Amino acid sequence: MSSNLNISVRTSDLAVLQGVLDDAGYDSTSSLADPKYYNIAVKLLFNLYNDGMTSPAALSIELSRHFGKTPLPSKSSAEFEKNRKLIQGIRSAVVVKSPTGA
């Protein structure tokens, strides 16, 4: 498996990716001190970008999650739970009102 990345990135997008790295603390000094983590972070960001994730906030969250700095939410979102129930075939609780209104 090759470690070379063959991704085409515009200069403006490269600036965004560099900003995400800088905000996460991966600057030139950290890359010299511990190049292994810096290289992993760069590859992760490029792969996420290549997969279509272009939001700096989303990229920062994924970078933090990858390195264990941001805990995953303990409660699933309502949309996720709805989709999970649909996939698993679980019916939601349905409230049925009496036609007499009682």
Automatic annotation (TrEMBL):
This is Uncharacterized protein. It comes from Rhizobium croatiense.
